[in-house]
Amino acid sequence: MRTPAAYVRGVRHPEAFHGDGVTKGYFEGWYNKVVSADRMQRWAVIPGVFRGLGGAVGGDGRTTDEAFVQVLDGLTGRSWYHRYEVGEFAASDREFDVRVGPNRFSPAGMTLDLPQLRGEIAYSTPLEPWPVTAREPGIMGWYGLVPAMECFHGIVSFGHGLAGEIEVEGRPTSFDGGRGYLEKDWGKAFPAGYVWMASNHLDTEIGDGTDASLIASIAIIPWLGRAFRGSIIGLRHGGRLHRWTTYNRSKETRLSIDDTHVRWSVTGPDGVLELDAERVRGGLLHAPLRTAMHQRVEETLDASIAFRHLDHDGRVLLAGTAACAGLEVFGDTERLLAL
Fold first, then answer.
1. CA of 259: how far to CAs of 105, 196, 276, 277, in Å?
2. pLDDT tens-digit profile of 118-140?
3. Tens digits of per-residue pLDDT, 105-116?
4. pTM assigned to the model
5. Measured between alpha carbons, how far is 87 from 99 in angstroms, rounded to an integer?
6. Nearest 10 degrees: CA dihedral of 85, 86, 87, 93?
7. What average pLDDT does range 249-254 have in this prediction?
8. pLDDT at 215 exceeding the cut of 90
9. What percent of the chain has pLDDT over 70?
10. Vertex 263 angle, CA 136 and 73, to 5°
11. Distance between terminal CA atoms of the chain?
12. Looking at the DSSP assignment, which residues form a beta bridge with residue 227?
């Protein structure tokens, strides 16, 4: 069980490990995305840990407690899940510093020793997190202060530079001048239904997209025996983070999900945002249920998202296409839409 001091420290440091003292019914994972300068290499590397419900055993007779590193080739959709013993996992509860077996992740970069990826990618510029303040402790706002939330979310870096050469399936591959993105989740389990999308490769037709970044998610949120549809969107451009969230009373004016697109429009204090994400087939990633890590979430790093940000007078501030986008559509989307 976490101490009150550890809980407060965790609120102040979303990037750090939140699971010290938690022995069952818990997961935590860090999503590291790296894209080469020519955009021809797109990889997600996800280290983490999962603890099942008190001695639960999977179908192969092994305990469901495990550490892991997942790998997704965002161009081809291939994915791999590398399992490690829990004792091979270590992470700081004060900063972003994670080790799984011989693999290491920190603000300096990541060192990988995996069949698909070997070597070191350095982060050549500082990480750029979602600001953490007393009024808004990260992307979840005041909901991040509620211990009973099913799943917590944190943005460790909207974007940072990459440097270094690694072996990609045995071939030397440069990531010099590339761009990285880093977020994380922790808690009891993933939501029963959600949509998630993210890109920091925004090709603009209107406005300056230099260093622009988009993260958007909408999910079924259990709450006091019922559920509501909660959303968090951050669009960083022009030196400012623009927010559309449940906790700042932004409103959805459109949300539709079909086999080919996710179309989503919101209005709030920072104006109007229109998103039209094209769905493409991706690779299967493991995600935490309450009993085990299950291969169930299809994710791509090859989606494209048409976007428009308008002020309240209808003036377009930024518009274009977000490329190399991560996109997940999972679970009971009919219920999600009905809430």
1. 36, 15, 13, 11
2. 999 999 999 999 999 988 999 99
3. 999 999 999 999
4. 0.94
5. 11
6. 150
7. 98
8. yes
9. 94
10. 80
11. 33
12. 222
Q: Estimate to the nearest angstrom the gap between the alpha carbon of 155 and the chain centroid.
A: 7
Confidence of residue 256 (pLDDT cuts 50, 70, 90): very high
The Cα–Cα gap between 105 and 97 comes to: 6
Cα 156 to Cα 54, 160, 177, 197, distances in angstroms: 30, 10, 20, 16
How long a stretch of residues is the chain? 339
Interatomic CA distance for residues 164 and 118, integer angstroms: 11
Maximum mean pLDDT: which of 9-13, 187-191, 271-275: 271-275
What value does the mean pLDDT take over residues 256-278? 96
Contact, 182 vs 127, CB < 8 A? yes
What angle is formed at CA 121 by the lines to CA 234 and CA 239, rounded to 5 degrees? 30
Q: Residue 278 corresponds to which tokens in the numbers above?
A: 């094209």
Of the pLDDT bands very low, low, confident and very high (cuts 50, 70, 90), residue 60 is: low
Q: What are phi and psi of 334, to 5 degrees?
A: -65, -45
4-338 CATH: 2.40.370.10
What are the structural domain ranges in the chain?
4-338
Report the b/e string of 176-202 with b at 16+ CB within 10 A: eebbbbbbbbbbbbbbbbbbbbbbbbb
What CA–CA distances, in Å, run from 60 to 1, 57, 284, 291, 295? Answer: 29, 8, 20, 14, 15
Q: Which two tokens stand for residue 6?
A: 């550890």
Residue 7's pLDDT is: 72
Q: Are 163 and 301 in contact (CB under 8 A)?
A: no
